[in-house]
Each structure stands twice: as structure tokens, then as C-alpha cells.
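[step 3/7] fold_predict: job queued, chain A
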Amino acid sequence: MNIAIASTFNPYRGGIATFNDRLASSLSAAGHNVRCYNWSRQYPSILFPGEAQTIKGQPTPSNREAPLDSINPKTWRSTAAKILNHGDVDVLILPFWHASLAPALRGVAKRLKKLSPKTRVLALMHNASSHDGSSVDKWLTKRFLKRVDNCVVLSQSVKEGVNNLLPSLECKVLFHPLYDHYPSAMNKTEARNVLGIPKNVNLALFFGLIRPYKGLDVLLSSMKNVDENTHLLIAGECYENWSKYSKIIEYTGISSRIYHINKFVDEVELPAIFGASDLLVLPYIKASQSGVVATAIHYNTPIIASNIGDLKNSISEGVTGSLVEPNNSVQLASSINSWTQSNHNKGQVETEYDRIRTEKSWRTFAENLFN
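[step 4/7] structure written:
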């Protein structure tokens, strides 16, 4: 098939760009002809909470190589025309994760359907709305969904959210494929030397962009009840005021057990961060699915996570991790203590993750996307 994808790609940073890059290569490997259309402007700078939108050292793409501008309606129409410049397109895939981009994606879909009614427009929904979304976000998302032919979601919870917005839309449930392109982990001793973390402690990891729905405050509050030989590494850029978290650290007296990498983490840093860690903790208050889970499975890292969204479908209770109720710091602390104080078979973790890797491979995802 001739497939077009209009979304975020390298050199933009973050999980969505990584997902789309792997999606395009996997569809190409499956024999499809794939063309990708990137943003020349993804988020207006004034609306972006982080330090940079692109990978360090990489400039924002020019409009020659990236025709889409999130706030310029002319580019939405011209992008639709450019998609069709190379001949017929069987499917246009529009990945969705944030309502602020919904008008642009809707504009592309609307124009393309006018120019080529037979082209199928497929929404690939990472979220049913923005994680911290308002009623306006839901309205924007619904308007976008009305312009697509059908959608694919990565978890049952997202399907339910889409159905709540637009019950008539055909919606297929797949999964978040697991990444297989990251460099191998460092051995624990080397990794901890690099990060300046003691060799003889248990190390829990909170990884990824820090936003309210991810529950870092719950994890920090739990640490006062976690065994003192368990330390916490926080690795990720904060998209809100860090003082909220520093106050919890100070109040609970856990500063000597906290290590903080306060920046966006590049892929080259993953081997040290995951190599040093004994377990990943995802204390999310809300979630659909998580690319961080895919990264942890790549590194055979056990996971303790909130029992919400699709997180539970990647965790084998007592084997690769455990599930806790969201927003419950006491239960979270108990689960962390139980895991670090028990003897877990690393071979069993790897065997179970091998099974999940087979079930949730990019090849399987590409084969099932249009079936």
C-alpha cells in the first residue's frame, strides 16, 4: 500500500517521535511504500513547557522538509496536496496525542478527503484527549475524530475514551510495541560509577517527563516508608514547578536518598540509567499506556506501577513487577519494600519479557494495523 504519515519525527525529541520513526520503518519493512510529513513548527514556543523541542544540537526542520505548521492553516491544506503529489495514497495515518495539534491534523484530514475521497484517513490514538486535558481539549479531539474514517488505539482504556467522544467511530485496539533499537545496558557497577550512586543500595527509578498526572509526588511521599537502603533516581525534565517536589523531599527528610537528573534524557544515556536501576516505579494517577514501559522491558527492568490504563497488561504480578492502587503512597511503599526485600529470579523476568516482546513486536503491530 501507499501510506502517508503526518506527525512528529526526528529531529523532534520524545516518545511520540520515537514511536513514529519506528512505525514508518516497520511499515516499510512490511513492504509498504511509506512517506512521512513532519512539522516545521510543532508547538508554538510560548506554549511549550520544556527547554527544547528538538534533540540537542538539531535544528527545527525547515518548511521544505517539514510542511506542517501547527498554527498556520495554509500549511494544513498545502500538506494535504503534497501528500498526493506522489500519486494515489491508500491510507493517511494521523497519530494523535495532544489536543493542541488537533486543529492542524483535522485540517489536513479535511482537505485530503476533499482532494482524494477514496484515501482512508486513520487516526492512531495514543490518548483519547490530552492527559491533563480540559473540556476544550475534548471538544477539539472530537472535531478531529469526525474527520477520520476509523481509528486504532493502543489500549482498551483509550478506546473507551474515544467511544465516549464519538460512539459511531470504528475503533480497533492494538498495543504499544516494544522498542528494540536502544543500546545495551551497562553493568550495574559501571553504571553507578557513571551516575555517582552507591553500589550497595537498592535503586528505584522514576523515568520520563515530569507532569502532574505521573504521580511523582505520591512516590516521593511514599519514600519515608520505604526501607532506608532503597534510594530513588529521578531522571527527566520537569514540565512544572519543581519546588512542589523539593518541598516534599525536604519535609520527608529523604534528600540523601534522592538523585535527580533534571533534563530531557537522550537515548545514549539510557544504558547507564537503566543499567544502574533495580526497578522502575510508575506511580501514575492517570494513564493510557506508556512508552516508558516499553523501554523498561527492553532493559529487563521490573516495574511497579499503578493499576490503571494498559499498564497492567505488561506486568506479570510477582514475576516482572507488581500493581498498586493509584494515589496510595502507603501501598506503593509496601510494594517497593516487598519487591526489594524478596529474592526474584532474574531469569524468570527475562523469560516473561521475551514472551511479551514477541507478542508486542513492531513486526506484529505492522502486520495487524490494517487487518
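[step 5/7] annotate
The chain has two domains: 2-174, 188-358.
Residues 190 and 354 are 25 Å apart (CA to CA).
exit 0
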